[in-house]
Amino acid sequence: MSNPEHHRPWRGILVATALPLRADLSVDHDRYAEHCAWLVANGCDGVVPNGSLGEYQVLTPEERARVVETAVAAIGGERVMPGVAAYGSAEARRWAERAAEAGCASVMLLPPNAYRADERSVLAHYAEVAKAGLPVVAYNNPIDTKVDLVPELLARLHGEGLVHAVKEFSGDVRRAYRIAELAPELDLLIGADDVLLELAVAGAKGWVAGYPNALPRASAELYRAALAGDLTTALPLYRQLHPLLRWDSKTEFVQAIKLSMDVVGRYGGPVRPPRVPLLPEQEAAVRAATEKAVAAGLA
After folding, report:
1. What positions does the entry give for pyruvate binding (predicted)?
2. Which of the residues 167, 211, 223, 258 is marked catalytic?
3. Sheet holding 107-109, edge to edge
């Protein structure tokens, strides 16, 4: 089955995949391949390996490269949009070139995030990575990076041909309308699970998603209903899922999503340091919300 969005492969539900680690914290590539295939079989359009949910910052370069190759082998490069963030522009460009060599169709790139970059360095960073030749999706995460890709800056990046879409994680849903005014051809992608409905209604063209790692079918149903403007279906489902979806925007999102995966009978498993396990009360809250979703038939 080919992705109907092949000319704009960043559209649809692209799951920022959690990375299965064994008890000794080594990467389980076989399990990861199976997870990618399972997500596509359950209504998702593709995957984003080496996003923040994939713990890319704590992978060796060898591990990081193999994760991308594993995803491509499992579901085809058209469906794989790796994160290529790095502290140096040259390094990020090399990751984009590796993605092209692996057969990927697009990449996702944070702005410079080792320091509070100014507009000139943001533009130079995206220009450098665009030289790799793959379409670049910007990732705006001012909460974690201290660099805010405001609508005016996104419009400039898009106008110069450097980015084709943006994963919007600011949580500020007003920006959807400003981005659409300033850069109507720039695709808005939902970047935080807990503003999914608001951004879908505002015209988003895709979702770089966290919680579908645990609940792909219900998440896909919610997304497609929201995109179609079918609020009769979407709103009750969104209310049901929101106690889980909001964990995607918390500091402990990786641990929470992996725990939810464990609860629904997938393999979530441990995280690598410096992340630490959830506190008992956090674990209890995630577990209870996940079990409630399972009891409601959403798993």
Report:
1. 208
2. 167
3. 46-48, 12-16, 206-209, 187-190, 165-168, 136-140, 107-109
Provide the domain count of the chain. 1
Q: Locate tokens 């649809």: which residue?
A: 12
pLDDT digits (tens, 9 = 90+) for 15-53: 999 999 999 999 999 999 999 999 999 999 999 999 999
The CATH code of the domain that includes 156 is: 3.20.20.70
d(CA 85, CA 254): 18
Active site residue 250: no
Catalytic residue among 32, 56, 126, 139: 139
Residue 1 has pLDDT above 60, yes or no: no
139 is catalytic: yes
Would you say residue 284 lies in a domain?
no
Helical ranges in 42-150 per DSSP H: 61-75, 89-102, 119-130, 142-145
Dihedral sign computed on CA atoms, order 211, 212, 216, 221? positive
Category of 103 on φ-ψ map: left (φ > 0), alpha (ψ -120 to 50) or beta: left
